[in-house]
Design brief:
Chains: A mainly alpha, B mainly alpha, C alpha/beta
Strand order of the largest sheet of chain C: 18-19-20-15-21-22-24-23
Number of helices of chain B: 13
Order of helices and strands of chain B: HHHHHHHHHHHHH
Distance between the termini of chain C: 50 Å
CATH superfamily of one domain in chain B: MetI-like
Largest sheet of chain B: none
CATH architecture of one domain in chain B: Orthogonal Bundle
CATH architecture of the largest domain in chain C: 3-Layer(aba) Sandwich
Number of strands of chain C: 24
Largest sheet of chain C: 8 strands, mixed
Strand content of chain C: 15-25%
CATH topology of one domain in chain B: MetI-like fold
Shape of chain C: globular
Number of strands of chain B: 0
Radius of gyration of chain B: 24 Å
Oligomer: heterotrimer
Number of domains of chain C: 3
Helix content of chain B: over 70%
Largest interface: A-B, 44 and 57 residues
CATH class of the largest domain in chain C: Alpha Beta
Shape of chain B: flat
CATH class of one domain in chain B: Mainly Alpha
CATH superfamily of the largest domain in chain C: P-loop containing nucleotide triphosphate hydrolases
Structural class of chain B: mainly alpha
Helix content of chain C: 25-40%
Chain lengths: ~300, ~325, ~650
């Protein structure tokens, strides 16, 4: 206890501004988080602007320049159809990046909502939802996805919906666990004591306190979906040829691995850096925002 | 405690039942006239009608599900729409081949990742931790097929010690398959280890920071005893579930890796069956996945009881939470 | 002979903003067999000092200067191996929270055996015998059985006893006790302190007791070292320190402690506890406390002497809340062994009155508060809110969902833990404005004016409005909780253990605030607490609960004067006044209380049998509303031994009426 000293004159700003500032400062102090966010930003910028500066069309074949080695004209050489590998790599993020961010947002919105509702209302709804979640999680992910794709085609929206179906349950489980902890706390009891409605309690009291968890899940699930979608493309069930897609490119150029490794290695590096970006961002945010990641698998 | 175990087992059964119904519903929704697809475009309407009747496709869905379920309970999962053989026979052969990979991955992968995770957790912040953690991050961030591809580049092309693809068919003997399993094993181990290492590391760090470990240190105990007697029993608890989920993941995870190596396992069978619309086959593969998931989680829960005296001595009354 | 010799010890903690001094130039020396307390508020560095004596520094901390010798041997330069040896015979620690400090995966016996001097070479049977002997020495009821138990199977008091046994196992010359009774029920606390006292005599150890509780210190130590912001501000024998503290800070601290010998509300300490902070340019870790800070304490010490508010009960006769035969049941179905959690509870709260509901954990006191708030369904009975003017009543038996807005705003809750009762993502003004918007339907300037007025009422600076709860101290957060509850001019406030999570010095100011608020607004307060000492100077009437049944009720004066129910007696005996001469009559063996709600009223019949053979409780009336619910007869109650704490010797300050 010290005697009253003049209070620090702090600028009055809304709570969320202070939270945001705290997060920014946290990111600024964590090189790995900055690196991760930087990688994501780089890929997003490339995907959005690539049409302006890519040297070649990613799908234009050139019979005159088949399987060229890297050169000044073709930085990473060309593939067996004479397409410029560099152009295909820089275009290659468009399909999976947009798709996985979209699907991750679906996952978090739907899974987060269901998880919060289940933990707040408990009872039969919770029981039923958790059984369903368990059942969906028990079906091999790739089988579920292959079924959906052969059922409804391999359009990006279909794949995004399918990825949501297989991964939203995992988010629901994490959101439920986080909500269960919050629901026990006195400020929720206080809100109940004021006679507030369930919706008001979830939106005002619970959501702001599980938002961090959901944000981390967003980055996490984006990386998982990216892995899944690229695997799907690799197996021939994702992006259609001649779409420039990293998974597809690996599968196309793999047979030439021994003689033309760059056709395979370049898309692997592109994909790897993006996923590392998501993982570093997820780890960093979890640390900065104090989210306990144990159990978030 | 007994009622707790009974409850876990019942939950596992319910999970598998719901999963089988979900798979059934998804397969039901597959577009197109299945009988016509199987018989080909030139089939007579009569033949199509006959096959439809033989496959009971003319019956309502729920009845087909319960017929299938009744058969499944007797070990009869139907016959393949492609080969006409009982699906259990076909699946068994492929499952054995996948099991060969999975078995090695489970034994070596888990042991390796636990050791690495514990080392990283205990030596937090040291170069050893940095290397292990970075390795884990990479393992999580690179898809299986790219790891497989890079391994092929290294060990089949640059230094040719392992075969790049498997030439043996599904009926190959274990001895024939054995040389081909190592690259898939390394691939799957890398991916699986990444998650287990991360979880083990953070769990060990959490427990090392706990008050009871400080107390043990202040009792003047040697470090080895603190680690083995005080830290690990508690640190392993959250890791068990991660191990369970990863083992269950192997069932689906092998698909891509098997495709890279053309390995005649369950994953290869799955992809073929999807392309050929072999519904009974997919149904069985799906159920095998669900059962694996349920059994692994159940095993983790039971192992948790063994590790955790709090659960072991739980009175039945409190078992619920 | 000097057992512990600390000279100029300076410890800093490395942070991103630079080194933070945690201990500055600490010099203490403790002789063999001496018992010395280290006193301080949270953040004073007392736990760091205790750990340093164990040769243990938190990761990131380092010793900047000074020496620390145990038994003549330098600890700071000792090798890890030597440190381990010293922890196995020279010094050992009894940790703060035994529930967390015992390894959950190991049996009690095995953990204690690890600390034996003969471990690991000694034979298993021999070690077992030794550990069982130790468990018996700390007065655990069935040592043989407890050997094989896991920590979670023991009660909090038993865990603490096991931890003490573990500390004794290595036969140390010095025993360091870090807040050994914090978090325990009052009766358990009293008996464990008694045990520590007798062990010390038997083993002839030096004892270092880290505590924030002057009552605990007064009972166990002859000397006390007061730490403030990492510095020793006073080192004196306990008697002198308590009677005539010489440092201004010690004076302020001691004046803030309530005492049953001097009932009333002391002035709480101003400001917030000094958190260790990075040094500014030109400062060194060894700088003494600044003159301006000292000046502040000087003023405070002067004010505290004058502003002590002697106990002044309010008596009215206009009931606002009536609880009749209330029963709350947690059981899924009746099991024939135990009764409902709360049964047959009836009481009234008068307008402007503070009614204290006293009981240990598990007594159902919080359950009653939540039932009144409509958050727990009633199994039986009724709760009514009464308008004292018109006499009309509102039924409070119905749950929150079925109460009108008006009713909801009339009954408000304040929670124990201000950390969790405020949404960490909402600003203070948000928290206070919410009930105003909801119940009064006001907005804009009107809302802001009202909010500012309320914040002023509870002594919160307006600039706190935009802050988040994490940017406030514990006491300030509790003020926000109170502000929120009085915002809508309620009739009844349900205050659930509102001060038990606060530092003693902060408790005082929050208690005064509650007293201010109820006098100003004529509020009725149901004050739920586990500690009789806290309510002694505040409440008008008392209800003592045990296992969900009322055992005694009456005015505070009557209850402290006796006669009492045997359970109330135990609670009163367990109060630790900061007075070395007050002898606690509590036994060092933990009293085995029944732990399940009784099916019939037989909870005390075995321990205090009645000569009449009666086992069923009935009410004995001692007049003035002093009712005791017991199976004993009036004569038997009067014959129970008791020391009267109601009429303390008049002290000077008690006469100073403000």
């Amino acid at each position: 206890m010290n005697p009253p000293v003049a209070q620090s004159t702090e600028q009055a700003s809304p709570a969320w501004v202070m939270e945001l500032r705290r997060t920014m400062v946290g990111i600024g102090k964590s090189p790995s988080t900055m690196f991760g966010l930087g990688l994501i930003a780089m890929h997003v910028i490339i995907a959005l602007t690539v049409a302006l500066w890519a040297p070649y069309s990613p799908i234009a074949t050139n019979p005159a320049a088949i399987l060229k080695s890297p050169s000044v004209q073709h930085w990473l050489g060309t593939d067996s159809l004479g397409r410029d590998i560099f152009s295909r790599v820089v275009y290659g993020g468009q399909f999976s990046l947009g798709l996985s961010i979209m699907a991750a947002v679906f996952c978090v919105v739907i899974g987060g909502t269901l998880g919060m509702l289940a933990a707040f209302y408990r009872g039969w709804f919770d029981e039923a939802l958790m059984r369903l979640v368990d059942a969906v999680l028990s079906v091999p992910t790739i089988l579920a996805l292959l079924l959906v794709v052969s059922l409804m085609g391999n359009g990006p929206v279909v794949i995004a919906v399918a990825a949501t179906v297989v991964y939203a349950p995992a988010v629901a489980r994490v959101a439920r666990a986080a909500t269960l902890q919050v629901v026990e706390l006195d400020y929720v009891t206080a809100a109940k004591g004021r006679g507030e409605s369930g919706a008001a309690i979830i939106l005002r009291e619970i959501l702001p306190n599980v938002l961090d968890v959901l944000l981390v899940e967003l980055a996490m699930k984006a990386s998982w979906i990216l892995l899944l979608v690229s695997s799907l493309s690799f197996l021939g069930f994702g992006a259609n040829p001649p779409t420039p897609d990293w998974g597809l490119m690996v599968s196309e150029n793999r047979t030439l691995l021994s003689v033309r490794p760059w056709g395979t290695v370049a898309p692997i590096i592109a994909l790897g850096t993006l996923i590392i970006g998501f993982n570093l961002a997820a780890d960093g945010l979890a640390k900065i925002r104090g989210v306990d990641r144990a159990g978030a698998v | 405690m007994f009622s707790y175990i009974v409850r876990r087992v019942m939950l596992a059964v319910v999970t598998v039942l719901i999963a089988s119904a979900l798979i059934f519903a998804a397969l039901l929704a597959l577009p197109g006239d299945i009988a016509r697809q199987i018989l080909g475009r030139d089939a007579t309407p009569q033949a199509v009608a006959d096959l439809t009747a033989r496959l009971h496709l003319d019956q309502p869905a729920w009845q087909r599900y319960f017929d299938w379920l009744a058969g499944a309970l007797h070990g009869d999962f139907g016959t393949s729409l492609v080969s006409g053989l009982p699906v259990t026979e076909v699946v068994f052969t492929y499952l054995r081949n996948s099991g060969l990979i999975a078995g090695i991955v489970i034994v070596f992968g888990i042991a390796l990742s636990l050791v690495l995770g514990v080392i990283a957790g205990l030596k937090r912040g040291t170069p050893a931790d940095t290397v292990i953690s970075l390795g884990g991050l990479l393992g999580m961030s690179i898809p299986e097929y790219t790891i497989a591809t890079l391994l092929v580049m290294a060990f089949s092309i640059a230094i040719p010690i392992f075969p790049a693809v498997v030439t043996a068919g599904p009926d190959a003997t274990v001895a024939q398959l054995l040389p081909a399993v190592w690259l898939p094993v390394i691939t799957l181990t890398t991916v699986m280890a990444a998650y287990i290492i991360r979880m083990t590391r953070s769990s060990v760090i959490d427990v090392m920071a706990s008050e009871f470990v400080t107390t043990a240190q202040l009792k003047g105990l040697p470090t080895s005893r603190i680690v083995f007697k005080h830290v690990l029993p508690s640190a392993m608890l959250p890791v068990l579930n991660v191990i369970a989920i990863n083992i269950a993941w192997l069932v689906g995870g092998v698909v891509v890796v098997e495709a890279v190596f053309n390995y005649p396992g369950l994953g290869t069978l799955m992809i073929e069956s999807v392309s050929r619309r072999d519904i009974p086959m997919l149904q069985l593969i799906g159920v095998i996945g669900a059962v694996t998931y349920a059994v692994c989680n159940l095993a983790a829960d039971l192992a948790g009881i063994a590790f955790n005296p709090r659960l072991r001595t739980l009175s039945n009354r409190k078992a619920h939470r | 002979m000097t057992q512990i010799d600390i000279d100029g010890l300076t410890v800093t903690y490395a942070s991103a903003q630079g080194d933070i001094p945690v201990l500055s130039q600490v010099s203490v020396s403790i002789g063999a067999g001496e018992s010395v307390a280290i006193i301080g508020e949270s953040g004073s560095g007392k736990s760091t000092l205790a750990a340093a004596i164990m040769g243990f520094l938190r990761t990131g901390s380092s010793v900047r200067a000074g020496e620390l010798r145990l038994d003549g041997e330098d600890v700071l330069s000792a090798s890890n191996r030597r440190l381990r040896e010293m922890r196995r015979g020279v010094v050992s620690l009894v940790p703060q929270n035994a529930g967390h400090a015992l390894t959950p995966s190991m049996t009690i016996g095995r953990q204690i055996a690890e600390a034996l001097p003969g471990f690991p070479g000694q034979g298993a049977a021999e070690m077992r015998a030794e550990v069982v002997r130790l468990l018996g020495e700390v007065k655990l009821p069935t040592p043989e059985a407890i050997f094989d138990r896991y920590p979670h199977q023991l009660s909090g008091g038993q865990q603490q006893r096991a931890a003490i046994a573990m500390g004794l196992a290595s036969r140390p010359k010095i025993l360091v006790l870090d807040e050994p009774t914090t978090g325990l029920d009052v009766v358990t606390q009293a008996s464990i302190l008694k045990l520590i006292g007798s062990l010390r005599a038997a083993h002839n150890m030096s004892i270092v007791l880290v505590s924030h509780d002057l009552g605990v210190v007064a009972h166990l130590c002859e000397r006390a070292v007061v730490l403030y912001a990492g510095q020793v501000v006073e080192d004196a024998d306990t008697r002198t320190l308590l009677a005539a503290p010489s440092h201004l800070y010690s004076q302020a601290l001691i004046s803030a402690i309530p005492s049953t010998g001097r009932p009333g509300l002391p002035l709480g300490l101003p400001g917030t506890p000094p958190h260790p902070r990075p040094l500014l340019a030109g400062e060194t870790a060894a700088d003494p406390i600044s003159e301006s800070e000292l000046q502040g304490w000087r003023q405070h010490a002067a004010a505290a002497k004058k502003e002590f508010r002697p106990y002044r009960p309010v008596a009215t006769n206009a009931p606002v809340l009536r609880v009749k035969e209330l029963s709350v049941d947690y059981r899924r179905k009746p099991d024939g062994v135990s009764g409902p959690t709360v049964a047959g509870v009836s009481f009234e709260i008068q307008k402007g009155e503070i009614l204290a509901l006293i009981g240990e954990s598990g007594s159902g006191k919080s359950t009653i508060a939540s039932a009144i708030a409509g958050l727990r369904p009633l199994a039986a009975g009724s709760i009514e809110l009464i308008d004292p003017e018109s006499g009309s009543t509102v039924d409070l038996s119905r749950p929150v969902k079925r109460r009108s807005r008006r009713t909801l705003s009339s009954v408000q809750l304040v929670f124990q833990n201000a950390d969790t009762s405020l949404n960490p993502r909402r600003s203070i003004q948000d928290s206070i404005e919410r009930p105003l918007r909801l119940f009064l339907r006001i907005a804009g300037t009107k809302l802001h004016e009202k909010r500012d007025a309320i914040m002023r009422d509870v002594g919160l600076n307006r600039e706190f409005a935009h802050r988040l709860p994490s940017q406030l101290s514990g006491g300030q957060r509790q003020r926000v909780g109170i502000a929120r509850s009085i915002a809508t001019s309620p009739k009844v406030i349900l205050a659930d253990e509102v001060v038990s999570a606060l530092d003693v010095s902060v408790q005082a100011s929050v208690l005064r605030l509650i007293d201010d608020v109820r006098r100003e607004h004529e509020l009725s307060v149901l004050f739920v607490a586990h500690d009789l000492a806290v309510v002694r100077g505040l409440a008008d009437r008392l209800i003592v609960l045990h296992l969900g049944r009322i055992v005694e009720q009456g005015t505070v004066e009557d209850i402290f004067a006796g006669p009492n129910h045997p359970y109330t007696r135990t609670l009163i005996d367990s109060i630790l006044d900061p007075d070395p001469d007050a002898v606690s009559p509590v036994d060092e063996v933990e009293i085995a209380m029944p732990t399940q709600p009784p099916l019939l009223g037989t909870a005390f019949a075995d321990r205090y049998p009645s000569a009449s053979g009666n086992r069923h409780p009935s009410t004995v009336d001692f007049g003035n509303g002093h009712l005791i619910n017991t199976h004993l007869t009036r004569a038997e109650l009067l014959a129970l031994p008791h020391n009267n704490r109601a009429n303390p010797a008049p002290s000077d300050s008690a006469k100073d009426v403000q």
